[in-house]
Amino acid sequence: MRDISRKCEDDTGFLSMVDASLLAVMILLVSFFFFHSLSAGLFYRSEPRRAAFERESVKDIQKSVLRSVIGETGYLKETDGESQRVTYTNITVDTAIKNYLYLKNRSEDEDAGYDLSELEENIKKQYERCAGEISHYHYAVDVEDGPAGLFISDHDEINDRTDLPDQRSAHSTYTTLGLERVQITLYIWR
Amino acid sequence: MEKELSEIMQRRFSGDERGVAGFFLDGPVLLLVIITITVFIAILSQAYLAHREAVERERLDDLCLDLKRQVQRHPEMVAEEENRTRSGELSVKKLNELDNQTLIEELDLNGGYDFRIIVNDTGSRDTWVFGNERRELEGSEVTSYRGPILLISETGDTRIGELRVIVWEG
Q1: What is the least distance, in Å, from the CA of A110 to any CA of chain B?
Q2: What are phi and psi of A2, to 5 degrees?
Q3: B21-54 burial, b for 16+ CB within 10 Å, e for fewer?
Q4: Which pLDDT band, with edges at 50, 70 and 90, does B125 fall under?
Q5: Residue B135: pLDDT band by 50, 70, 90 thresholds?
Q6: Per-residue confidence band for A2, with pLDDT thresholds at 50, 70 and 90
Q7: In this predicted model, what pLDDT tens digit does every residue of A137-154 receive, in sequence order?
Q8: How close, in Å, is residue B87 to chain A by CA atoms?
Q9: Which of A22, B44, B68, B108 has its CA 20 to 30 A from that of A6?
Q10: Which DSSP letter does residue B20 get?
């Protein structure tokens, strides 16, 4: 009987060790996950750093591009088998976009054909310079004007708004073509 | 046997504290407690340092973006048209004439922080650099913003430039 009571005391000591170890491990685990979450910014940062910089960039890129000047650009007008080049000098990208939309709308109404590829290429170059070369973002520009819109992107696989990545920043601005309001939206992402 | 049992029961329920004293004096358990407290303090310190770093980084980001906005509308830098400033368009003439020390005094970063502003004309390759001398920044927190900006030349031409703003703890 004496042996039984001694064994009982030994078990209690052993269980205390197990309890203490388990408690220690639990405290460490809980504190690790809590403080790790805290240090990772889960409870503190409401706005990710990347998004704040992207939002600022998309505004600057849009503003700079639309006000920037294209030295020389133009389009080809084809009537009765003859091709005539019309040249614009020192026009802003904003004006170039409006001309593009105007001519695209006209080409659908008239028999005359317009080759607007040079105009589109020059608009794209300005976006490429500001968004790609300077700010290091991928970009897409979506201009809505009824059936005649304009969609430009540096990605070959992105052909309309539905192809855009989920993680992106956007900025819209408006210009007027005739009496119509035209929305120009720029999307950027990395 | 009954006597033995009653002795055990008495020891268990009569406030016998020999086990308690044994627990604290037990070497392995004491070691475990010390290790636990040490690791806990280490985790706490690491979390605090990481948190402070995140706060500092966020503060630098805010300052950097704020400084960028100040540059975009600073009257000593932006172009004018019919006595109206053209926000976001820098005048090459003004950049050539701008005094660095005056700019440092005018652009307020709430103390303790240094900055550098680099404007690069991507067409002519001209570069203007303003702000503090940049010491060795290895190990210290730095935030920078890079974006396009319009430059209005002395002849009135509009060119695309690059604006870079760098902020660090002074």
Answers
A1: 35
A2: -60, -40
A3: eebeebeebeebbeebeeebeebeeebeebbeeb
A4: confident
A5: low
A6: very low
A7: 999 999 987 777 899 999
A8: 10
A9: A22
A10: H
Q: Is A89 on the interface with B (CB under 8 A)?
A: no
In a 10 Å sphere around its CB, with 0-12 CB exposed, 13-18 middle and 19+ buried, how is residue A145 labelled? buried
Tracing tokens 């993680």 back to the chain, one arrives at A167
B:133-162 residues touching chain A, CB 8 A cutoff: 145-150, 157-160, 162
Query: Across chain A, how many H-helices and E-strands are there?
Result: 4, 7
For residues A124 and A130, give the distance between their C-alpha atoms in angstroms, rounded to a whole number: 10
Model pLDDT for residues A36-93, shown as the tens digit of each residue: 776 666 555 555 678 889 999 999 999 999 999 999 999 998 877 788 899 999 999 9
* Partner A contacted by B40 (CB < 8 A): yes
Do B61 and A52 make contact, defined as CB atoms within 8 angstroms?
A: yes
